[in-house]
Structures are given as structure tokens and as C-alpha cells.
Amino acid sequence: MLDFGLPELLLIIAVAVLVIGPGDIPKLMYSFGRIVRRLQYMRFALSQQFEDFMQEHDLSEMRNMAAMQTKGSAEDEKDDDAAYLGAAVNDSDGGAAEDKPAASKSE
């Protein structure tokens, strides 16, 4: 995503030293670290609230049921498509399948 190499990083540090000053850089980095830490905590708290909500309302079971229904309907559609294609192939044979006796399964 961000492609910083060593030369770019050194250039950013040099500009920061010139613009901000060497005495204020530790204070700035400390403030930046606190902001990043707060953002990480907010992300954790939000994901934890979401997980608690899912467990409280037992939506994970509903999600699994929906996934199973979707999977089942996809398999039904595949079976329907195969049956339709099989019927189309038999129709395109010009009735040749009707002239031949059907093979019986003796097993």
C-alpha cells in the first residue's frame, strides 16, 4: 500500500528536523504514538461490541443457516441445469435415444 524505502524515510526525517526542530520531535512522536494507540483501542472496542452483539442475539447461528440454505439452493440450481441440459441433448439427437432400448442396471 505505502511503498516507503530508506531514501524516502531519510528525506522525511530531514524535512521534519528542519521544519519542526530537533527539540520538538520527541514530543511530536509521543503525541503521534498516543493517537495511534487510541485508534487501535477504538478498533478493538468496536470489534468487541460487534462480537458481543452477535453472541447476545445469536446471529451467528442464523448466519450459518442462511449460508447452508444458499449452498443448498446453489446445488439445486446445478441439478436443474444438468437436467435441462440433458433434456436438450436428448432433443437434439432427433429421437435417436427413443429408438435404442434403455440400458438396465442389473446390480
Tell me the layout of helices and strands.
Blueprint: H1 6-20, H2 25-56, H3 59-92, H4 96-99
Order of helices and strands: HHHH
Low-confidence stretches: none
Quaternary organisation: single chain
Overall strand count: 0
- The rough form would be described as elongated
Helix count, DSSP H or I runs of 4 or more residues? 4
First-last Cα distance: 62 Å
Report the sheet-strand fraction: under 5%
What percentage of residues falls in helices of 4 or more residues?
Answer: over 70%
Query: Which structural class do the helices and strands define?
Result: mainly alpha
Mean pLDDT: 77
Q: How is the biggest beta sheet arranged? A: none
* Rg of Cα set: 33 Å
Describe the structure in your own words.
This protein has 107 residues and is mainly alpha-helical. The chain is 79% helix and 0% strand. It has helices at 6-20, 25-56, 59-92, 96-99. It is elongated, with a radius of gyration of 33 Å. It starts with 5 loop residues before the first helix and ends in an 8-residue tail after the last helix. The mean pLDDT is 77.
Task: Spell out the key features of this protein.
107 residues; 4 helices
Short description:
The protein has 107 residues and is mainly α. It has four helices and no strands.
